[in-house]
């Protein structure tokens, strides 16, 4: 996609609008797959929560991915996209036993991350294959809100609770066919990941009938030109070697599984907004756009820095702008950012808008959620309509007073 293509999308579908480049998603999938080509059995399960549009799920499934889901609704979306149940893993946190049983009844792989539910589920369904999510107590990730493998995390069964875990498995005679961890997102240090992997290998030795080991994901992607990222090729080389060694020790060829979300779709996405007002104050020049944290909350929630380009004037003289939204509270996308000179009506493009952007959007201030477009085979395909006022009212019940 070039700037003219993006401007044409806005011309046809209005702003704000999300645009995803299918070729970038395909390239990222191939890159990850190639990094682990020395392992015979590799399974890449796309983390649906990153971007759950059903057309994106269909695209990824056509490439060969399974689906990593965290809710019964995501399981249903994956099934609706035509993904076979056996290619779906369900990894919830803090949900009811009833929801887990419902997912199991659909034939998907169950992944349980607490002792209470493990014992209840194993007692009632001892023959159903279950994966166990371990908390390795490793601090990793680019923000405390997305670091999920540390000692104070709500996720996973503590590695120190292994004796209790084993007792439950032995008492219920349940079928443990996988073991899993996820330490966090935006992991840059390969050695930290490899260290956590050794903890997972040690945990795996406690179970005799494993089919797979799931190492989660969280690989860091670049957010701007020259930004640092996880060296996936080096990581693939090192973990593949160690995984193959472990399979020999274990006496069985296991499947190496991952659940990437951001890695596959983040860089594919552009979020396009129109500048409503350029507002000069005593100390700041604000570019006020027709969107806000109701559509892209990551800068406010995680402090993420999405690169912003004025695609209406990409070669213009750079000036400093604070890009802000139209939500009625502090709503800042960028502070004092160097951007080509902005005029009212210009279109700004936010990079890395493929992951955890539309999927975290809301109707705050009763604003409509944007349209979504998939750029595939050099053509823009509308994959979600922009909401209307009817959508805002759809499930409301108006009382008469």
Automatic annotation (TrEMBL):
Limits of the Orn/DAP/Arg decarboxylase 2 C-terminal domain: 18-354
Entry keyword set: Amino-acid biosynthesis, Decarboxylase, Lyase, Lysine biosynthesis, Pyridoxal phosphate
A Pfam family annotated for this UniProt entry: Orn_Arg_deC_N
Named cofactor requirement(s): pyridoxal 5'-phosphate
Entry annotated with the keyword Ribonucleoprotein: no
Active site (catalytic residues): 328
Enzyme Commission number, as recorded: 4.1.1.20
One Gene Ontology term of the molecular function aspect: pyridoxal phosphate binding
Record field: catalytic activity: meso-2,6-diaminopimelate + H(+) = L-lysine + CO2
Modified residues (N6-(pyridoxal phosphate)lysine): 49
The keyword Cytoplasm belongs to this UniProt entry's keyword annotation: no
Enzyme class: lyase
Residues involved in substrate binding: 298, 302, 329, 356
Binding site for pyridoxal 5'-phosphate: 218, 356
UniProt domain Orn/DAP/Arg decarboxylase 2 N-terminal: residue ranges: 23-266
One GO term (biological process): lysine biosynthetic process via diaminopimelate
Entry-linked HAMAP family: LysA
Summary of subunit composition and partner proteins: Homodimer.
Its biological purpose: Specifically catalyzes the decarboxylation of meso-diaminopimelate (meso-DAP) to L-lysine.
The protein's name: Diaminopimelate decarboxylase
Annotated source species: Ulvibacter litoralis
